[in-house]
Amino acid sequence: MGAILSSTANISLGQVLGSKFFGILSILAYFPEYWCGPCKIIAPKPQELSEKYTDVVFLKLDCNQENKPLAKELGVKVVPTFKVLKDKKIVKEVTGAKLNDLVQVIETVKSSP
Q: What are the catalytic residues?
């Protein structure tokens, strides 16, 4: 794939979990905020990672007013937050602009059955 799906509009957890990609791929949901310094620092990395990990769907969900209900439902308390979903549940999380931790989580989830 090598692309990031992005939404600034209101999206529900059901829409994320009902994604046609589930069962085939893991989903990495990325919650940034436009004013966030660490979000700006790590901003180009999800695109680079999406090109390396083509079997992972990268979903960028801005924590704006429209996506606040989803961020709250998923327990996002700091930005950026990365939630890795597999088999329709959250299996890992990385908070902050921690690229090495993010790569490690992706590798761990990919190698798990």
A: 36, 39
